[in-house]
Automatic annotation (TrEMBL):
The lineage of its organism: Bacteria, Pseudomonadati, Thermodesulfobacteriota, Desulfobacteria, Desulfobacterales. It comes from Desulfococcus multivorans DSM 2059. The chain crosses the membrane at residues 16-39. This is VWFA domain-containing protein. It comes from the Bacteria. Keywords: Membrane, Transmembrane, Transmembrane helix.
Amino acid sequence: MARISRHERKQRKKEIVWGAVALITALGILASAMTYVFLNRDDVIGAKTLCPAGGPRGHYVLLVDTTDRMRFAQKLAFDVIFRDIIEKRMPEGYLLSIFVMGEDVRANARPLIEICNPGRGADKSEWTANLERLRRRYEERFRKVLLDQAATLVDSKPAKISPILETLQMVGINAFRRHDVQGERRLIMVSDMLHHTPRFSMYRGIVDYETFAASGYARKVHAELTGVKVEIHYLINTPELQTRRNLAFWENHFNSTGAQIVAVRPMEG
């Protein structure tokens, strides 16, 4: 077998060294690319809704009654409630659907906006996540987007009717049933809770729920809200009608839908 010359041995060593350098460089580039993708990935967040890939972990629905103009103090109280939901109460991965209630049920049958809380990244490590990017996404694509809707929810014109029952039916169909979230399901209502339509009006006097429930109208507006926890924030516009008997009507009604009232609070103003 022929001997390898000293020059050839040196040449081969150079080739091995440069090959190793090239391999290390390539691995470094690959590692950097993988790190960048890992820190900036969107594989667990929906591009538009910001919801987890596996679906929302819970579902909050905010229903705001816009059939009466809010007074100044009521607007301030609503702003506190709205910010509290967005900034403190709503867990990461939960979906928020916002509905408005006006006199045109069809026009308001779909949510004004639907978006999940993507989280601020508070539970993440800077070694495994881009914390600044997560914070910016939360502020710009979640918090700001929702707060920009606040004016739409409080600036309204008085309406001739207040179709609370029909709107609840739409919420059951286009929010809770449509998404069918298996986690917590909560309905937060801001309303005077005085239903008023030609077929049925609470302005005509005290309403007996059993009489209402036996009517054809009650069957027509029945809603499916199984497992939903309901919070009511009362807009006190007609105190003489917004009595304990009014609340009892709604307790019975929500029980008939499979839901349960868990909190009631009169709003300031």
